[in-house]
Design brief:
alpha+beta; Rossmann fold; 192 residues; Rad50/SbcC-type AAA domain-containing protein; two-stranded antiparallel ribbon; 6-stranded antiparallel sheet; 5 helices; P-loop_NTPase
Amino acid sequence: MGPLAKVRWISIKNYKGIENVELELPGPRMKDDPDVMVIGSQNGLGKTSILECCSLLLSTLVTRPRQWEFRTTGPRPLPIHLPDLLVRAGADQLKLDGELWLVTEKEQKKLRVSSHLTRRGDVKIDVKINGERLRDARKEFDATGERESIGEELISVISGLSADPMVTDSFLLFHSYRKAQEGNPELGPNLG
């Protein structure tokens, strides 16, 4: 099994309904405490958007850069201009910055991830590990090359083009617990 990736800090600017938010997601305080974060608030305040942004940052570790290109022409063009669904109304670009930790049994490595998307669809992703720029974060996180690349599927799920939960070997994203149980009965027992 490869390293575990953990989001420890995230800054979100101009994502869907979020103008600007910065969150620290601390790890456990005691050695045997579970590494769990609970986010709660009233409906419509951005909890799901925050989780989507965490997913986008984590996905840079298993996604090839070309999968972030938004297809508007070609054999299977997308039916809508996706940046319009992701970039906050009135803004020119969305900016996600985060600090991730890659954790193995032997060590922890600190990654700094920046992901920017313009309304035109231009994407810039920058990943630094211990301060040095990585050309391919996938190699650091997925040394065996066996993890699934999830860029297109993730964008499809968070933009609403797919209502299905996203289940891969390294990633789970459920927009709705109820939909996951009703639409995919085989997942029900795995959800509790």
